[in-house]
């Protein structure tokens, strides 16, 4: 759904697919930050996860004591954090797999692998006897 389209209550599919957005951070304080078009919550969560992952990688490289890696991180820590998170967000939210956003693709892959041994038809689980050969019994007439 485009950001400039207003939700009118006529198309419930578009309304349910509309992303959760945050328009203000630190509301009511002197550090209040406003976003005119809002930031999607899934992008904030992915960004925080990427920062956390970068900090863990930095900590591991410091603990190991690799001098080249340590010097690179200490000299470029801000670039590593900002560029790493920016590249992660761009890759995660701009690529499409099977004509789907990447998070929907991985969600569908997970659902498929979790339920691949179960057969469905019209969203109803098909019984396991469906694939077995059919056996018929001889019909006995009662009027003989």
UniProtKB/TrEMBL annotation:
Please give the organism.
Salinicoccus jeotgali
Can you tell me where the transmembrane regions are? Answer: 44-65, 77-97
Q: What is this protein called?
A: Conjugal transfer protein
What keywords would UniProt list here? Membrane, Transmembrane, Transmembrane helix
